[in-house]
Each structure stands twice: as structure tokens, then as C-alpha cells.
Design brief:
Layout (H helix, E strand, L loop, with lengths): L6 H5 L14 H13 L7 E4 L3 H10 L7 E3 L15 H8 L14 H15 L7 E4 L2 H12 L25
Parallel strand pairs: 1-2, 1-3
Amino acid sequence: MRHGRTNFNDLGLCNDDPLRDVHLTEVGQAQAQAAALALRAVRLQRILVSPLPRTRETAEIINRHHAAPIEIHADLADVRSGFDGRSVGDYFAATSHDPLRARVNGGESLLDHKLRVLRFIDWLATQPDQSVLIVAHEETMRVFIAHFEGGVDDERLRDIHVGNCEYRHYVLSR
């Protein structure tokens, strides 16, 4: 699941610093509440979130129906853009010469991020839980979709759009 809408989504700003005040807006809270109702009958054993508070805030709303342990996993963090607090448009402009491989301002490339998320998926396959909710970010969800649904070349990752609080269901083979 992608987190609910945030103040930085509204402003078109990048965020990969967990200490920055990025939080769900009223719309984001309502999105999370709607997702919580839709998922209320699902038995969750654990909820995994990124280190960025908007994912935990979303998870806590979902968890009102579950009381599952919520844990932070660093590999679920959004792409470290090198543009924290700056315009998403500026980030895209700075990486436009090579969107997959460009590392700007000490950030990671989209391919670096993809490898980190794939490492998380490999780790997840070793876990004993049967039903886990993962609350992460659009870039992270793109990797999940490409991995589990297939047919997406790296160059097309950015063509995948995931709405706030949109979720997918996947089954890992062990």
C-alpha cells in the first residue's frame, strides 16, 4: 500500500528525511480510513513501514481494525533523491539526462532504489508471517508491481502510477 496524501504531496516536494515535518493531510487521513474499512476483514499478522512517518501514520489508521505489530524496515524508504524539501520538478530536471542511473546531491539512483526494494522482497520471502501489510511509497510500489506483475522494463517504471492508499495483494512463493 502507498501511504495517504501528505502536505508535501500537495506542495510537490521531495521527502526522504524522516525528521522533516511531512504528515498526512485531512484527505490523506480519509484515504487511510477508507482503506482501513476495505481491509478490516483481512487478518494481518504484522505491518511493515518505511522510516518516513507518513507510512507509520497511515499504518496506525489501518491498524485500528487489527492491532498488529508495526515495524520499521529501512529498505522500504522512499528513493533518496538528494532533493529533500525541494521541488519534485527540480529533481526530475536534475536526473533527466539518465533517469535510471543518475545520482544527484548524494542521493541514490532509481536503480539503486530498485535493488534495495528487491533485497527487501527477498528478505520478506524468508519471514514466517502469512499476512503482512506493507505501507511504503510510490517509487517502492512501482518496484513491487514490476516484480510481481512482470512485463515492466526499468525504463517504464516511472510510467506506473500508484494513488495514495492504493493497495495490491501479492502472494510470495517460498
